[in-house]
Write a structure and sequence with these properties.
The protein has 91 residues and is mainly α. The chain has 3 helices and no strands. Helix 1 runs antiparallel to helix 2 and helix 1 runs parallel beside helix 3. The mean pLDDT is 84.
């Protein structure tokens, strides 16, 4: 497996697990367990896709090395999750 693919998967999973406890609290409010699990699985897929896209774009631009691109991607995904959490809990 290429280093870029490993970084994309790792960063996507790190961002997901860093925010899963907040989504777990939000998902407990759904009436069925299938809806709760569905929301959590959809978020995992979104995090993996966003990590793939962001690292691919940063590698294409080729300004920083892979480690720096991974850290930048993790910061962006964490900011995305903070904004999503604020949006979910304010509505």
């Amino acid at each position: 497996m290429q280093e870029r693919s490993k970084a994309q998967i790792t960063i996507g999973l790190l961002a997901f697990f860093a925010s899963v406890w907040v989504l777990y609290e939000y998902a407990k409010g759904y009436p069925t367990i299938f809806e709760s699990i569905g929301i959590i699985i959809i978020l995992l897929i979104v995090m993996l896709v966003l990590a793939y896209i962001l690292i691919a774009i940063l590698e294409w631009i080729n300004i920083f090395d892979l480690k720096t691109n991974s850290i930048l991607t993790l910061i962006v995904l964490s900011a995305f999750m903070i904004n999503l959490t604020i949006y979910l809990f304010t509505n």
